[in-house]
Amino acid sequence: QVQLVESGGGLVQAGGSLRLSCAASGLNFRNYGMAWFRQTPGKEREFVASIAWHGGNTKYEDSVKGRFAISRDNARNTVYLQMNSLKPEDTAGYYCAATGNLYGSPIRRDYSYWGQGTQVTVSS
């Protein structure tokens, strides 16, 4: 079955960096657009970044533009999220997701597969 497993979360001070990874299995990774979403308690899961099957066509939520970078390695079936200049408001559970839309999408309902999430906490 399809599995998406996130790693790399943790506790970091404001201004610091983290790199999240998401390892995919059970699907033909090249046939999927990928994305990262995040969620805090009591709020809806929100779009962070997406990437097309070939590694281009990246999209970002406005508040992370210039600070976060999404990338993928199709040989390793892995998608990454490099997060720099972290702020306390970036604190959330971060989830990777896969969509049959080859070019990715910012729309949550477009995604068929989800990981279990990894927690990112940014202290002030």
Protein architecture, described:
With 124 residues, the chain is mainly β. It has strands spanning 3-7, 10-13, 18-25, 33-39, 46-51, 59-60, 68-73, 78-83, 92-99, 113-114, 118-123. The strands form 2 sheets. Strands 2, 4, 5, 6, 9, 10 and 11 form a 7-stranded mixed β-sheet that branches. A 4-stranded antiparallel β-sheet has the order 1-3-8-7, with no helix packed on it. A hairpin with a 4-residue loop joins strand 7 (68-73) and strand 8 (78-83). The protein is globular and about 40 Å long. The mean pLDDT is 98.
Coarse morphology: globular
Number of strands: 11
Q: How many DSSP helices?
A: 0
Uncertain runs with pLDDT below 50, 5 residues or more?
none
Ends apart, CA distance between termini: 40 Å
Q: Provide the residue-averaged pLDDT.
A: 98
Helix-strand pattern, N to C?
A: EEEEEEEEEEE
Range of helix content: under 10%
Largest sheet: 7 strands, mixed
Backbone structural class: mainly beta
The Rg value, from CA coordinates, equals 13 Å
Taken as a percent bin, the fraction of beta residues is over 45%
